[in-house]
Amino acid sequence: MQTIQSSRSLTPDLARGFMLLLIAMAYTDAHLGNWGTPANQAVDLQPTERLAIAFKTLFRDNRAYPMFAFLFGYGSVLLFQKMERAGFDRKQILSRLRRRACWLLIFGFFHSVLVFNYEILAPYGIALLITAPLLFKTDIQLKKILKFLIPVFTLMLIGVGFMYALPPETYGSGATATQVSTYWETVINGIINFPMSACMVLGYPIIPLMIIGMLAARKQLLDDRPAHRQSLKRIARVGITVSILGAVPLLLKEFQFWRSVYEIDALAHALHLISGAVGGVGYAALLGVVVLNIRDRNTVVVQAVSALGKRSLTGYLLQSAAIMLIMAAHFGNLGTQLSDFQSALVGLAVWLAAVTFSHVLERNHLAGPFDHLLRKLANRSIN
């Protein structure tokens, strides 16, 4: 299970490693007993709780998955180019990508059923099935597709925002791992919720963000080139500013700065979703700027976080399983006992453990076991 040593760029790996921190914090939060409810009773919250809610609203929620979608599209181009250099024809490339997508879908099903109902592997498997043929399109063709998709998905996100403004029990089960009495109930919920989770790709802008990532990869935007410094700074500045400003109305709503009105609440949710899509790209660009300013790339922190990014599938699955064992009612049961701030600390601790594990694998030149398995399964039919 040796890793292939190559001159891969640092930025995408570092960005994926950072993204997994946001996901770990989100997943611990999802196991809290009050998940799916607004952050009301704000006047009674401790300062640390206010800080945790402000952080997740302004910087985390609906920002990590757009960042992953952008990076997923970016990575699909790198994989496509690698296969082209190896001499694969169109049929072979599509076969390999579709196999990869189908296995992601299968991994996602078992992850949803056995570990966490609201997982992200299956949606990205579906997204890869849809976008694989687009890798053969020209930049002009991709931009034309984007011009059509962006307004369509913007309208969809507005609709999702109106759904989110409803009471949680109105639009979904709202059940968390703290609200079921046995592990088997979680398994059943996973089976029931899987189709809805997998079809998230249809309601969230995963596909347009992947296409943006494809275009960025063709320009080698995250390939650690000093020539891209100003472009990355501009994208980061605009993306993160839009992301924060777009999240402020929802934060004010959750802290009860106004009396709850359904239409206003819905627009706050919609703005949070739309601005988060922009913010995800901004986060990736910011990491590109950070990498260009790193003088010593051999520091433990840089190497360890990028090692996790190289093994993002393994890191994602192990983090999710660890969080379930710690937080779920039928295991560690901390989800019923922790506050938002404490939950974030658990997510941070789990992420640090994943970083450490990945760094050990890197030092021993070993791939992540699930990443290795996915490559083996996806490549099996390619001769």
From TrEMBL:
It comes from the Bacteria. Keywords: Membrane, Transmembrane, Transmembrane helix. Residues 216-379 form the DUF418 domain. The chain crosses the membrane at residues 64-80, 124-142, 149-167, 187-215, 235-252, 272-292, 313-332, 344-361. Signal peptide: none annotated. This is DUF418 domain-containing protein. It comes from Parapedobacter pyrenivorans. The lineage of its organism: Bacteria, Pseudomonadati, Bacteroidota, Sphingobacteriia, Sphingobacteriales.
